[in-house]
Write a structure and sequence with these properties.
The protein has one domain. It has nine helices and no strands.
């Protein structure tokens, strides 16, 4: 009987040892993927920036990407920022009117929109729309061996695919954000007026509180956001494996990683710019 329990004890011990080993291996695999991702992204970013600085980028491809990424994103940016500004103003106006400081609503709403709402929401919308499209398009080219065909013809995929998209995003995201600031503030204005705030006090408060620096710093943040969206989408597209299923997986990863980088970097940029 003692031998029976001893036998099962050895089996259990071996099973626990295997489970621990598998767990450690999974952790090491995730760490490897984590640093591998940043290594790939850094290499792609360095190569793309080098080509942009040298002017080794197709103007035609860049303009096409600016239209696809920027112009086609305008409607969804308008809707998102307008209603976000309206909701912010809804709560702010009710509270400020209750405490008799309704003359501060315009400044608070416009400053919040310029510093945070418009830059972050525009970046999130573009990441979901354009970032996923970049990963899916490049990923499809990867699994259908079009990337290998480019290399065989002596054309760099970074030059042909990544650099134009990076340049287009860095240029167009601040433009979209500027539109978002105007529309978001106007949405806040309409709601504030409907909640008892006079239009003149809203405009005067905005004029006093909102500075050029607030707008410029908000736009500068979007340059970093556009950089992250383009590099992450390109990296995920170029690293696709496993056919159509791999394209779908990496497209989802591109959106998730881009959003995480936007939110994390936004905190540090805000602390650096406005603290």
């Amino acid at each position: 009987m003692a031998g029976f329990y001893s036998h099962w004890g050895v089996i259990v011990a071996n099973g626990l040892e295997s489970a621990v080993f598998a767990s450690e291996r999974a952790i090491y695999t995730q760490i490897y993927k984590f640093f591998g991702f940043f290594g790939d992204a850094a290499g792609i970013a360095a190569d793309a920036l080098k080509r942009i600085v040298k002017g080794d980028v197709s103007v035609r491809d860049t303009l096409n990407q600016m239209a696809l990424i920027g112009v086609n994103s305008v409607p969804i940016v308008l809707v998102t920022t307008a209603f976000s500004g309206a909701v912010l103003s809804l709560y702010t106006a009710q509270l400020f009117v209750q405490y008799g400081v309704s003359n501060l609503v315009g400044g608070g709403v416009s400053m919040s929109v310029a510093r945070e709402l418009a830059p972050v929401l525009t970046a999130i919308v573009v990441a979901a729309r354009a970032g996923s499209a970049i990963a899916a398009e490049i990923g499809t080219m990867k699994v259908t061996e079009q990337i290998d065909a480019l290399r065989s013809l002596g054309t760099s995929p970074i030059q042909y695919l990544v650099a134009p998209r990076l340049l287009a995003l860095v240029i167009m995201l601040p433009v979209l954000t500027m539109i978002g600031i105007v529309v978001g503030t106007y949405g806040g204005y309409l709601v504030s007026v409907s909640k008892g705030v006079t239009g003149s006090s809203f405009i005067e408060s905005t004029r006093i509180w909102l500075t050029v620096r607030d707008v410029v710093m908000g736009l500068i943040k979007t340059i970093f956001f556009g950089f992250f969206i383009a590099i992450v989408g390109s990296q995920q597209g170029l690293s696709v494996k496993g056919g159509a299923a791999g394209v779908g997986k990496n497209t989802m990863n591109a959106v998730v990683i881009s959003m995480i980088l936007i939110y994390v970097s936004n905190y540090f940029l805000a602390d650096l710019m406005f603290s």
